[in-house]
Write a structure and sequence with these properties.
Layout lengths: L20 H11 L20 H13 L12 H17 L7 E5 L2 H20 L5 E5 L4 H10 L2 E5 L9 H7 L4 E7 L11 H10 L3 E5 L7 H7 L1 H4 L13 E5 L11 E5 L2 H4 L4 E3 L7 E3 L8 H38 L4 E2 L8 E6 L6 H10 L5 E3 L4 E5 L8 H16 L17
Parallel strand pairs: 2-3, 2-4, 4-5, 5-6
Antiparallel strand pairs: 1-7, 6-7, 8-9, 10-11, 11-13, 12-13
Helix pairs in contact: 2-11, 3-11, 4-5, 8-11, 12-13
Length: 430
């Protein structure tokens, strides 16, 4: 018997007649009614707001490059120049040596995937490694596991210590002549701690493996934090200035305050970058060369990111980073003042997790109570925790959030709030 031809009445049908622009806009506006109010600072992640002026600059650039396609920079040399500028500016920021080179990607996950693939190809080409392994801490981003799954690497996961940094002894034991890539994070996502990058890079260099620093969250924060207050917000060396680091990723659509989705993946040299590029002419359509996982690439996010960086410059980013980190410091102090809550590790920047130190206090129920008050937090574990990525847009509402946090904890303790069905689902979407 063939498939049923009876239409499903619940499935939307393809539109017969078109709508005018005003009606379309009204429908889209209505669809956003239940979305999180990121423009009011009520989401700690997902969207990062540099303010009305930064938004206006990005939106103007986006309109100019709405239809351009970076698949062919020969047809759109403007995008070739924009990509080159973004990579050069990021290399300058992250102490890239002469000859450092990279590409713009669609976001942190694509940057990480390309770094994993490039490390696999390098290990195969330079060291004849055909059963490659990826060494990483349990705090490293899940996208590395996705890359290992897609590109056929075996993962060797090492634990973290009490301070949430990788166990270097365990990592040293895991690095072998089969290792293609060793991962460091600056900072790692779950608790916001910067890994000991120099030590990790030395382990990779010992066997000729690649070392990738995931600075998707920190690449546009840590350099400016160190300029503002090095004693308070500085970190040990963590970028391309560290010997043995072969690649690094930094997301402009996070704390670079560009629209989604744009990230930069840099390699220490053009020779290392070549391992990232796919070049194929064994079909009837001519030579096909792509620098990352996409074919067609929208020019919109690239141009918007270029415009935002050009608008802000070092001075603008220093201002936004100071505002962000002062807000994060206030949040950490406020959380630690609440009986039964703690901030794991010793994060010094814009990422933190909130966990419960009281077995009778369900932190996910606290999250549900905060959600009922209009706040959005991602959830993670183990241990169960609420995750915050603090940005400039959160700064004006820190006092309101802290007051609601205290009320939410009191409500849970009083038995007025339980974890909702499905409320314990983890989410680390950035």
């Amino acid at each position: 018997m063939g498939p049923s031809t009876t239409p499903d009445p619940a499935r939307p049908r393809f539109p017969t007649a078109g709508l005018d622009a005003d009606a379309i806009r009204a429908e889209l506006v209505a669809r956003r009614d239940h979305d999180v109010r990121w423009d009011e600072g009520r989401t700690f992640g997902l969207v990062f707001d540099g303010g009305e002026e930064v938004r206006a600059v990005a939106e103007d650039a986006a309109r100019l490059f709405l239809h351009e396609n970076a698949l062919s920079t020969a047809a759109f040399p403007s995008l070739a120049g924009i990509q080159s500028d973004l990579c050069a500016w990021t290399a300058d920021l992250l102490h890239g040596p002469d000859g450092a080179a990279g590409f713009v990607t669609s976001g942190g996950t694509e940057s990480i995937l390309c770094a994993v693939e490039a490390a696999r190809e390098r290990a195969r080409t330079e060291r004849d490694v055909h059963e490659p392994e990826l060494v990483l801490a349990e705090s490293a981003h899940a996208a590395f596991h996705k890359g290992a799954h897609l590109f056929g690497l075996r993962t060797c996961v090492v634990p973290v210590l009490a301070d949430r940094t990788p166990d270097l002894d365990a990592m040293a034991d895991a690095v072998t002549d089969r290792t293609a890539l060793v991962v460091a994070s600056a900072p790692q996502y779950p608790q916001g701690v910067v890994d000991p990058v120099a030590d990790i890079a030395a382990l990779a260099d010992r066997v000729g493996a690649s070392c990738h620093v995931d600075a998707c969250m920190g690449g546009y924060v840590l350099p400016f934090a160190a300029l503002e207050e090095p004693d308070r917000w500085g970190s040990p060396p963590w970028d391309l200035g560290v010997d043995g680091v072969t690649s690094i990723s930094a997301d402009l659509h996070k704390l670079g305050y560009a629209p989604k989705g744009v990230s930069v993946l840099l390699h220490r040299s053009r020779a290392l970058r070549r391992h990232q590029t796919f070049d194929f002419d064994g079909w009837l359509g001519g030579r096909y060369v792509t620098p990352n996982l996409q074919g067609t690439r929208s020019g919109l996010p690239m141009a918007a990111a270029w415009a935002v960086v050009r608008h802000l410059g070092i001075d603008g980013y220093r201002r936004l980073v100071r505002t962000t980190l002062e807000a994060a410091d206030r949040i950490r102090a406020g959380v630690q003042a609440v009986d039964g809550l703690e901030v794991p590790g010793d994060p010094r920047h814009h990422l933190l997790s909130i966990t419960s130190s009281d077995p009778t206090l369900d932190v996910f129920a606290v999250g549900d109570a905060l959600a009922a008050r209009g706040w959005h937090h991602d959830r993670q574990g183990p241990p169960d925790g609420l995750h915050l990525t603090v940005s400039n847009g959160n700064a004006p509402v820190v006092d309101a959030w802290l007051a609601d946090l205290v009320d939410a904890v009191d409500e849970v303790r009083a038995g007025g709030a339980d974890r909702v069905a499905g409320g314990g689902a983890y989410s680390t979407l950035e």
